[in-house]
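PROTEIN DESIGN WORKSHEET
SECTION A - STRUCTURE
LENGTH: 320
TOKENS:
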């Protein structure tokens, strides 16, 4: 009986996946998959890769949010509120400028390295300032991200790559086709690794002193966590672009309902993130059909609203 809610949630996500596979500008129904070669070709070249990209990108950002929140001991952090995504954007821009013909794997490695550097800078700054409120942490991250973003915009404007940068930041999935989404399979390995190392991240989230007293190699866990976040952010950035707030709002809502056990929460976090990502994509495709609003625009509106509510709720508790 305990597994029944999770089974129902999985069925709901599968229903959303089926809807994503059948919705689009090119009409494809189930009978056409067996009778129309063009429809079948379009289905496997465009619809299936796009839906898989939605699933993997959502899982990537959700896992990144969980790891960052445990390591920093703050519920308001994820790659878009710590500047990690902005560092990945800077890496992609510089690679485009100096090595435009670089293969996808090289782009993924460079974006991950820059994301890793950004996470280290963020953690280094946190260690040197006095934190009197949890709200200060995301503010510091947003400030660092804004600074890096300003440098990125200046370089893009100076080199006439502003349009490319804007297209990347839109985070749309309309250009995802077979042959350019496959790096996102790496995210599946990261999710599996996090599941098996969940207990260690839970202990690390209690703080350095507690983790060390329990015999946990704290620095090694921190390095592994930052590496996971950097890989997930870098791969997602290369394939689909900028995905805001997803790793922030979903882990918090799941923790609010189920507590802070990372291992038991992880399936719910992944399923909820996938459901939210696909729902935002479907809204973007249906509202102005046959045109399309990028899924991240819809997600940004939802995520920003929830983020502000969380900040106000935390501020209200501080005054109680």
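SECTION B - SEQUENCE
RESIDUE ASSIGNMENT:
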């Amino acid at each position: 009986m305990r597994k029944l809610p999770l089974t129902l949630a999985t069925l709901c996500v599968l229903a959303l996946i089926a809807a994503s596979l059948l919705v689009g500008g090119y009409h494809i129904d189930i009978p056409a998959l067996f009778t129309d070669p063009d429809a079948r070709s379009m289905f496997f070249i465009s619809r299936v890769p796009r839906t898989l990209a939605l699933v993997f990108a959502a899982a990537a950002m959700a896992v990144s949010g969980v790891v960052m929140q445990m390591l920093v001991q703050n519920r308001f952090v994820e790659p878009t509120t710590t500047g990690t995504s902005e560092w990945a954007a800077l890496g992609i821009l510089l690679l485009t400028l100096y090595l435009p013909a670089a293969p996808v794997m090289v782009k993924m490695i460079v974006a991950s390295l820059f994301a890793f550097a950004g996470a280290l800078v963020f953690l280094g700054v946190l260690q040197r300032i006095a934190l009197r409120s949890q709200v200060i942490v995301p503010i510091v991250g947003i400030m660092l991200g804004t600074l890096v973003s300003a440098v990125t915009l200046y370089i893009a404007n100076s080199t006439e790559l502003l349009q490319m940068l804007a297209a990347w930041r839109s985070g749309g999935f309309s250009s995802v086709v077979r042959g350019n989404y496959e790096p996102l399979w790496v995210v599946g390995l990261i999710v599996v690794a996090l599941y098996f190392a969940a207990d260690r991240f839970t202990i690390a989230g209690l703080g350095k002193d507690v983790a060390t007293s329990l015999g946990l190699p704290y620095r090694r866990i921190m390095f592994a966590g930052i590496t996971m976040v950097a890989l997930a952010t870098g791969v997602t950035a290369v394939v689909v672009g900028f995905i805001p707030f997803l790793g922030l709002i979903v882990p918090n809502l799941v923790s609010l309902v189920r507590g802070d056990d990372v291992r038991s929460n992880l399936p719910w976090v992944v399923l909820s993130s996938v459901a939210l990502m696909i729902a935002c994509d479907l809204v973007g495709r249906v509202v102005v059909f046959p045109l399309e609003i990028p899924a991240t625009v819809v997600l940004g509106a939802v995520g920003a609203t929830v983020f502000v509510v969380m900040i106000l709720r935390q501020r209200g508790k501080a005054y109680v």
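SECTION C - NOTES
The chain has one domain: 54-319.
The mean pLDDT is 80.
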